[in-house]
Amino acid sequence: MSSTSAVVGKTGLDYRTLFRSSPAALLVLDPELIIVDVTDTYLTATMRGRDELLGLHLFTAFPDNPDDTEPGGVNRLAASLDRVRREGVTDVMAIHKYDIPRPDGTFETRYWAPVNAPVFAADGTIALLVHRVEDVTEYVLAQQDGALGRLAGELRVRTEQVESEIFARRQAQERTATMQAAADSLDIAILACDAQGRPVLRNQTAWELLDDQWPEQLRPPLRRAVRGEVVRDAEVDLRLPGRPRRILRMNARPIAGQPGLTTVVSLRDITARRLAARLQEGELEVTHLIAQGRPSGETLRQVMRIVGTSIGWSATEFWVLDEVTQALRREARWTFFHREDPPSLSVGLPGRAWRAATPLWEREAGAGAALAIPVPSGPKPLGVLVCYSDGEEISEHLRDAVVTGIGARLGEFLERRRAERLAAELDRTRDEYIALVGHELRTPLTSIQAHTELLLDDPGLDDEQRDALTVMLRNAESLRGIVMRLLDVAGLRWGHIELNRAPMDLAELVRAAVSGRTGVVVDAAEAVTVDGDPERLREVLDELLTNAVTWAVAGTAVNVGVHADAGAAVVTVSNVGEGIPAEERGRLFDLFFRGEAARHQGVPGHGLGLTVARAVVEQHGGTLTVSEPGPAATTFTLRLPVS
């Protein structure tokens, strides 16, 4: 109740008048123990007027009797009211002495049987306190005088009522304590919410899981329950600042008959089970992926995505040893929501794991944590997988699962890629053997060519003989050219051909190679200095440019770029045209290899140009590669160490 204007119900009753006319002696207090209303019966019992009491603090209106040698009424009543406010329960007090002031300022001895009860607001908080009293002064005095006969019947009824209330209250308290103890023993978080969806009650597991927070991720299913819907097995991905990621299974349903409560919610932590399942699924996906086709850079990028999404890493990277600079470089990266800012933990971590040849788990306050895995694990890793977490903790079980699961599958991928490179080396050795055979062919070919030229000088030859000798000479010259190219490749690969190295501007050499060619666009604004043989590198550029112009679609430009990149000089030659078939890409630099398109379209050549070009580049300590099949543009990339 309040001291504001009277509330009139639909029946036309004046509820304030009804309250004040109650035969019970009732006093209404706010939580600060300020008197807000009182019944007429209470005023009669205490010999006070309503205007004297409203707005006063309870113990200002009714202080202890200063002449009482054993006062205590104020303290006992205050303790009872505090319990009601703290625990939200009804408290029945024992009969006690509490003197009240008379209008003349003196005090009159009174004995009371009080009951104090809470009044709840709609949100479940305590809005008011009701203090009900029974004046049992006559009974107590009569008991002291030995005259109990005339009050026995009345007091028996009152005693039974009081005992009933005490028993009911104790039962309610015991049930509440038992239910709270049972709820606290559960490993499931239990919460009860008010009409606004705010948690009012929660068990110990809920406190440990959420503390006093109420995350936004829980609100959508809770709103459905508040509206009366039963929510079953809703999965919630919970990410709280400074806490490990949690995956929860949420159930919620409306409840009735509980003042201030509308919904009960249960939350089960299924993080370990769900992440383990996702990790296993990721491992199977990686295994399936690397089992298809040739290992490639695109395969590695897809593996990074699978690893990142398996247990919710914020970013994943893979680092390999650069063959040119002999330093680790990042070959593939995946980030959550395409975040481009690298974690601060990434500085130096791949190198430390590479040198240690063992998995490392590092944490940094405010920056999360990172797991670096050398793969394959051992004294000579082929690469380093780095996984970043926004939180500072990932369970040791999950870390081990990544190392032995996806990490092992990635190791198989790298071993397979390495095996294919070794197979390519074996093919190169075979080709070198062929080149050695070609070396033995050079002398007899030279002799055949010289004697054929002598025969052609004979004036007595008829036309048919001269035509035959001309064909013989032409084919001998062609065969000798092939042999010389073979010897060139062998010499370059074995180091038998000396390179005339000197500091040179690679960008200037590119511009010179492009000069006079139509349809070629160069992007080389700055000088890029390398230590190289200008003539040999010019051969490489001429081969790449001729190849690009030959296969470019009519009307399109060949784009050439020159730039420096982390200790390496890079030249790219791109053309738009028919893409290189996937099955031919790995053989482009093999001796005598010519694609189906070149053979069918009659493009001249012997399949040695790109072989010689790669040999020259490798003799310079660099690499020559071609882009992966797929896009319309084909790009050859030349990388050389900078001076």
From TrEMBL:
EC number of this enzyme: 2.7.13.3
Principal subcellular localization: membrane
Reactions that this protein is recorded to catalyse: ATP + protein L-histidine = ADP + protein N-phospho-L-histidine
Top-level taxon in the UniProt lineage: Bacteria
Pfam families according to UniProt: HATPase_c (PF02518), HisKA (PF00512), PAS_4 (PF08448)
Span of domain Histidine kinase: 436-643
Location relative to the cell: Cell membrane
Alphabetically ordered keywords of this record: ATP-binding, Kinase, Nucleotide-binding, Phosphoprotein, Transferase, Two-component regulatory system
CDD domains for the chain: HATPase, HisKA
The name this protein goes by in its record: Sensor-like histidine kinase SenX3
Species name: Actinoplanes ianthinogenes
